[in-house]
Design brief:
Elements (H helix, E strand, L loop, with lengths): L1 H37 L3 H93 L3
Length: 137
C-alpha cells in the first residue's frame, strides 16, 4: 500500500508540474500576443513565433518522453507488486502446510506419550504385583 501511495503522490506531483508548465505556456502565449501587437513587421513576428513554437514543441516532446518513462516505471512497479503478492501467497500457503504438518506431528507425539505413560503405569503395576507375590510377609 505504501508503494501505491508513493506512486500516486509522484503522479500528483507530475500533474502539478504539467499544470505549471501549461501556465507558463499560457504566459508565453500572452507575451507573444503582446509582441505581435508591438512588432510592425509581419515576417519578423512570424519568425519569432515559429522559433518559440519550435521551442515549445521541443519542451512538449521532452514532457512526452518523461511521461513515457514514468508510465514504464509504473508498469514495472505494478509487475513487481504482482510478483511480490504471488510470492507472499506462496509463502502463506507453504507456511500453512508446514503448520498443519507440525500440528499433526504434535498430535501424534501426544498420542504416543499417552500410550507410553499407560505402558509405564502398566509395567509399574506389574512390577509391584510381582514384588508382593515374591515377598510373602
Amino acid at each position: 500500500m505504501q508503494k501505491e501511495d508513493q506512486i500516486i503522490g509522484m503522479l500528483g506531483q507530475i500533474g502539478d508540474r504539467l499544470d505549471k508548465i501549461d501556465n507558463r505556456l499560457d504566459n508565453v502565449e500572452n507575451r507573444l500576443d503582446k509582441m505581435d501587437n508591438r512588432l510592425g513587421n509581419a515576417e519578423i513576428r512570424l519568425d519569432k513565433i515559429e522559433n518559440r513554437l519550435d521551442n515549445m514543441e521541443t519542451k512538449l516532446d521532452t514532457h512526452d518522453t518523461k511521461l513515457d518513462d514514468h508510465s514504464q516505471m509504473l508498469r514495472g512497479l505494478l509487475a513487481g507488486q504482482e510478483t511480490l503478492k504471488a510470492e507472499m501467497g506462496g509463502l502463506k500457503l507453504s507456511n500453512a502446510k508446514e503448520f498443519g504438518e507440525l500440528k499433526e506431528e504434535a498430535y501424534n507425539q501426544a498420542a504416543q506419550l499417552t500410550m507410553l505413560r499407560d505402558d509405564v503405569w502398566a509395567n509399574r503395576t506389574e512390577i509391584y504385583r510381582m514384588k508382593r507375590n515374591a515377598d510373602p510377609q
